[in-house]
Amino acid sequence: MARMILIALGSSGDVHPVLGIAEELARRHHEVFVVTNPSFESLVKRLGFQFRPLGTAAEFDAVADDPDVWHPVRGIKMLVRWAILHTMRPIYELLEELHIPDQTVVAAPLTAFGARIAQEKFGIRLATLHLQPVVFRSVYDTPRIPPMLTGPRVPHWLKRLQFYLADRLLVDPILTRETNAFRGELGLRPVQRLMNRWCHSPDCVIGLFPDWYASLQADWPPNTHLTGFPLWDESVLDARDQGLQKFLEAGTPPLVFTPGSAMRHGKDFFEVAVAATEQLGKRAILLSQHAAHIPVGLPAGIVHFPYVPFSQLLPQAAALVHHGGIGSTGQALSAGIPQLIMAMAFDQPDNANRVQRLGVGGGLSRHQFQAPRVTKMLDRMLGCPEMSARCKQVAGHFSSAKPIPATADLIEQMLTVPRSGESDHATVC
Predict the structure, then answer these.
(1) CA distances from residue 12 to 173, 190, 338, 381 in whole angstroms, order as listed
(2) Which run of H or E residues covers position 285?
(3) What was the pLDDT predicted at 425?
(4) High-pLDDT (> 90) share of the chain, %
(5) N or C: where does the chain have the smaller number of CB atoms within 10 Å of the terminal CB?
(6) In terms of DSSP bridges, do strands 104-108 and 3-7 run parallel, antiparallel, or are they unpaired?
(7) Residue 337: partners with Cβ closer than 8 Å, 6 or more residues away
(8) 3-state DSSP call for residue 35?
(9) pTM to 2 decimal places
(10) How many C-beta atoms lie closer than 10 Å to residue 213's C-beta?
(11) Can you list the domains of the chain with their CATH numbers?
């Protein structure tokens, strides 16, 4: 039995996949610690894992309540400050306390700089977990990152220049000084362009998405493995809601609308949802933990639920309209239904682009997300037999995929292979 320490930073879409992996590692009789925000403490403990808090629930709420978090530039700055710098020292100190030499593996996102620094300081084996392909920089199949020019016709030198300028002008001024000051306290040398290569573990990098969604690129870290979407939700804990089942059985498959679990500014989204649903003559389910976002006096055929596990709902839905988080995207792909994405920031524009390339949906910016346009796009998508067939074809990829066991295999293997040291080509998985 080994000690497995899994770190999750972010909202439910970031935490749920980690819990699925934690379940598999616990099933294999490892001691599992989950390090995340106290907002998820009760869920972690219900699953039987050791819990260690990272930050406070009030801090999580403060970030989620700030509308700037969904701005394509200001949101990145908030991510750097809160997800990286604010957690760096606490994560390092937790790993200093919890790790057992040669018996511990840490799995963490690239934003967990404290884990990367602890790896260097203590020789801890670290797997970097990437939920979405947008974090992999490439001059070949380049992620869509507005306002950067990243299309296939953009020359490689211009893509490299844009990544360089993004580091020098946006990321490094916030990130580098504080990170290197902390490294200096620990006797570690300074590093530059932290988000370029250093953020990926030299031990093992795991992309939690399939190669048909984003294939390995020649300029990704050479120790990268793709395992697939780790689709996990709370359906394993809770029985199916009887009110939900009654609604589903009472009519045609509904549209499902959600702006994501972390969205605290979803009123406009749901107003558009209701208007588009009425214009289409469809039924709909609105998902939000914030009842104040839901229009008062919903029309017949439109209902609100605070939360429903997608694995229970989407196979019986007509389409999913959402924010473009990777978890929601993967669940819709698995269910074989079209999806319309309101892309705002982070990985959302890239996920919308990949969904469109697959032929299973489309995307709009937040500014474009207006009732007439949403109605028109949904009408076209729902009436397109080619898209319906393509959705079913893509869903077929999930039948034999075992991404969570495959990810657990890679993490376990790290215990049996000697570490190769700190270099771009070091690998233990």
Answers:
(1) 29, 34, 22, 28
(2) strand 284-287
(3) 45
(4) 79
(5) N
(6) parallel
(7) 314, 317, 318, 319, 320, 391
(8) strand
(9) 0.93
(10) 23
(11) 3-229+401-413 (3.40.50.2000), 239-398 (3.40.50.2000)
Cα–Cα dist 133/390, whole Å: 22
Residues 6+ apart with CB under 8 A from 149: 158, 159, 162
Tokens of 412: 């376990």
CA angle 176, 191, 412 (to 5 degrees): 105
Q: Which two tokens stand for residue 263?
A: 């969205």
Whether residue 22 is predicted with pLDDT greater than 80 in this model: the reply is: yes
96: Cβ contacts below 8 Å, ≥ 6 apart: 118, 121, 122
pLDDT in the model for residue 424: 47
Beta bridge partners, 123, equal none
| CA-to-CA separations, 361 to 247, 266, 314, in angstroms, rounded | 25, 21, 15
Residue 157, amino acid: W
How many CB atoms are located within 10 Å of the residue 392 CB? Answer: 12
Q: Token pair for residue 153?
A: 């016709």
How many Cβ atoms sit within 10 Å of the Cβ of residue 384?
Answer: 14
Q: Name the amino acid, one letter, at 115.
A: A
Average pLDDT of the residues in 285-301: 92
Q: Give which of 268, 261, 263, 264 is closest to 369, Cα–Cα.
A: 268
Q: What angle do CA 144, 147, 148 make, to 5 degrees?
A: 60
Q: What is the full DSSP assignment across 42-109?
A: HHHHHTT-EEEE-S-HHHHHHHHH-GGGGSTTHHHHHIIIIIIIHHHHHHHHHHHHH--TTSEEEEE-
For 209-228, how does the pLDDT look when each residue is reduced to its tens digit (9 = 90+)? Answer: 999 999 999 999 999 999 99
Tokens representing 40 are 């998820």
